[in-house]
Amino acid sequence: MRKLAHRLAVYLKDKSGHPASVAVLQFGIEGFLHTLVTMLVLAGVAIVTGQSRDVLFLVLGFSGLRLLTGGAHVESGLGCTLVSVTILVGSSYIPVSLWTGLLLCVLSLWLIEVYSYYLEPYQSTRPLKHKDKFKVLARIWLGLGFIFSFFESSRPFAIGLMLQALSVTPYGVRLVHSLNRLFGKGGESR
């Protein structure tokens, strides 16, 4: 995937004259391609397991909050895909009652208030300038979790929120980084 991202970055740089370096373009393209592959594998597994709706709400809760709060990353593209698919599809089997959904939202809000914004050392620190704005948006996203908890079909959203909230805690960061030792970079780091 790294080679494809490099070729696309060189092509984009040559054709558009974009001011970013090839390395910067490649990094962004590689991240996009890894995300695309992960989402396609996740969708396929969700369909095969019959968990499409629950996985969709889990992914929405997780991804939306992740954009707003950061979080630890598995560095290997393959490792990221395997961990994401396993955790998100596996979590879709957890039954969530109204009160469990509300409790998960309260706990997620508390964790985000205490621990976010988390960036990996290789990530740009630009989001930190807007940390307060991101936190307000995260609270709104978490508010959706409270609303969705009242509807049985969308309660897995709260599990997605909690999984993401855990990824910004010191324990969550250590856990994700320990997975990096298991998977290594595999030649395709994010």
UniProtKB/TrEMBL annotation:
<dbReference type="GO" id="GO:0016020">
    <property type="term" value="C:membrane"/>
</dbReference>
<feature type="transmembrane region" description="Helical">
    <location>
        <begin position="136"/>
        <end position="151"/>
    </location>
</feature>
<dbReference type="GO" id="GO:0009372">
    <property type="term" value="P:quorum sensing"/>
</dbReference>
<dbReference type="GO" id="GO:0008233">
    <property type="term" value="F:peptidase activity"/>
</dbReference>
<keyword id="KW-0812">Transmembrane</keyword>
<dbReference type="GO" id="GO:0006508">
    <property type="term" value="P:proteolysis"/>
</dbReference>
<keyword id="KW-0378">Hydrolase</keyword>
<keyword id="KW-1003">Cell membrane</keyword>
<dbReference type="InterPro" id="IPR006741">
    <property type="entry name" value="AgrB"/>
</dbReference>
<keyword id="KW-1133">Transmembrane helix</keyword>
<feature type="transmembrane region" description="Helical">
    <location>
        <begin position="55"/>
        <end position="74"/>
    </location>
</feature>
<dbReference type="Pfam" id="PF04647">
    <property type="entry name" value="AgrB"/>
</dbReference>
<protein>
    <submittedName>
        <fullName>Accessory gene regulator B</fullName>
    </submittedName>
</protein>
<feature type="transmembrane region" description="Helical">
    <location>
        <begin position="20"/>
        <end position="48"/>
    </location>
</feature>
<keyword id="KW-0472">Membrane</keyword>
<keyword id="KW-0673">Quorum sensing</keyword>
<keyword id="KW-0645">Protease</keyword>
<feature type="transmembrane region" description="Helical">
    <location>
        <begin position="94"/>
        <end position="115"/>
    </location>
</feature>
